[in-house]
Amino acid sequence: MTTLTNSCYLGFDFSTQQLKVVAIDGNLQVIHQNNVQFDSDLPAFRTQGGVHVHGDGLTVTSPVHMWVKALDLILEKMKNAGFDFSCVKAISGSGQQHGSVYWKNGTRTSLQLLDPDRDLHSLLQDSFAVLDSPVWMDSSTVKQCQYLESAVGGAQQLADITGSRAYERFTSSQIAKIHQLQPNKYNETERISLVSSFAASLFLGDYAAIDYSDGSGMNLMDIFTKQWSLPCLKATAPMLAAKLCDPTPSTALLGSISSYFVKRFGFPEHCKVVAFTGDNPGSLAGMRLQEGDIAVSLGTSDTVFLWITEPRPAVEGHIFCNPVDCSSYMALICYKNGSLTRERIRNECSGGSWESFSSALWSTPMGNNGSIGIYFDVVEIIPPAIGIYRFDQHDKRVDAFTREVEIRALVEGQFLAKRVHAQKLGYRIIPGTKVLATGGASSNKAILQVLSDVFNAPVYTIDVANSACLGSAFRAMHALVAGKGVSFTDTVRGAAAAQLAVRPNPSAEEVYGPLLKRYAGLEARVLMTTTQ
Ligand code: XUL
């Protein structure tokens, strides 16, 4: 095997709370990691968790200068740690999705002429029309969302074009709000970037295009033609196409790194900048998800990522263009009632012990003898409903279950929901499908067994602490060979494999096939009860 240790690839992740970087060598081994924590490393910006929550409780922004300064700092930290920039062949990165950056008229020229004797933060002092960038945690744009949906004919119509119905955090409504409330700032803007393409622009020394995958999180791009949708542009703000410029494939080589980084840090002149993307697409790459696979992250909120080829956009969940294969898609579904609900039921039904919680799962049969539970302690995203609902095998509502049945009903209900919603978005279990489990609860085998049975697929566990960064480093490496027809999967074949945790019981599909249909019907009933 050839050892390519003198080549390396960098992946950056501009996430909500920190900027991270991972360097891998030509053998896909991590050789360097570093990070800058916004709150503690850059206290002058006075963020909490990397953001400012405004007085209305709905508006959430981050100072754009903080992100620039974080890049100065992380590169200094790497230099001080002796990192050899001269071996970097390509860099890519990811950013928190949906957030937007507003470059001031005339800045393109300054970006092209950065003086290597000064830091980026001082060079770009006067480069942004909007200093507080709206981020994904913002939920202040209900009105703009309603307008956008009605302008294109409704929520489903918008999803059919852009992959998602209107969401407050998505970039269209954020841009519309800036245009409506701060028209001068909108007019002073020559280019609007996502956090990802903003970061790529810094490395490129020029405006970087928005990639298809992160561009799918804007409610502005037609995910099938991969062009900005005219009705969506029109419903958002005037002259928008000129401020966005055309989107680009996520595997695109944008160009060589700016001479600023060559002179200041010693990057090679031919080091390539590969399109940056969103953090969730970046994680899909980092987890090396393949067609038919599903990744389930079991954390404070549960998240499901899917690789799909025939997407069916719905008013629930999101369809994004796939970041590693331009002809495919990825779906993303987020659930609010994740770990906290599992912990509540553990406290109430098994005295706070995960061990007894697991014993209850092992001692109850697959399918729970027909009992189904839906547990929404807080208003769920999909479906938008709240409350606790228990049903017996005849779909009759009951007040209580025994403790063991309650525990199984919770875990089965959570996974049935995930499979039902994934299938609605076009997901199909195919031979060889894997479930990749991550997050806190992925260390619990009894929970994983239920996951495996409900999906009738083996479950693998994977450590994804840095998945978005790692995915970006993988993408940087792949982009150099993508033009020769090499697939992403082939590029990363040698990376550390996921661990097989459990296999499904042979009779799982027989049990859960009918339960999936019942669950979908009961969930629809619950939604009607909540919205009546
Ligand atoms: C996805 C989303 C978040 C951010 C977090 O739609 O809003 O996951 O990407 O960084």
UniProtKB/TrEMBL annotation:
Annotated EC: 2.7.1.17
Catalytic activity: D-xylulose + ATP = D-xylulose 5-phosphate + ADP + H(+)
UniProt domain Carbohydrate kinase FGGY C-terminal: residue ranges: 295-479
GO biological process: D-xylose metabolic process; xylulose metabolic process
Domain Carbohydrate kinase FGGY N-terminal: residue ranges: 135-282
Keyword Nucleotide-binding (UniProt): yes
CDD domains found in the cross-reference section: ASKHA_NBD_FGGY_SpXK-like (cd07776)
Stored InterPro entries: ATPase_NBD, Carb_kinase_FGGY, D-XK_euk, FGGY_C, FGGY_N
Gene3D superfamilies in the cross-refs: 3.30.420.40
Sample GO molecular function, one term: D-xylulokinase activity
Family listed: Belongs to the FGGY kinase family.
Species lineage: Eukaryota, Metazoa, Chordata, Craniata, Vertebrata
GO CC field: cytosol
Stated name of the protein: Xylulose kinase
One Pfam family hit: FGGY_N
Class of this enzyme: transferase
Keyword annotations of the record: ATP-binding, Carbohydrate metabolism, Kinase, Nucleotide-binding, Transferase, Xylose metabolism
Function: Phosphorylates D-xylulose to produce D-xylulose 5-phosphate, a molecule that may play an important role in the regulation of glucose metabolism and lipogenesis.
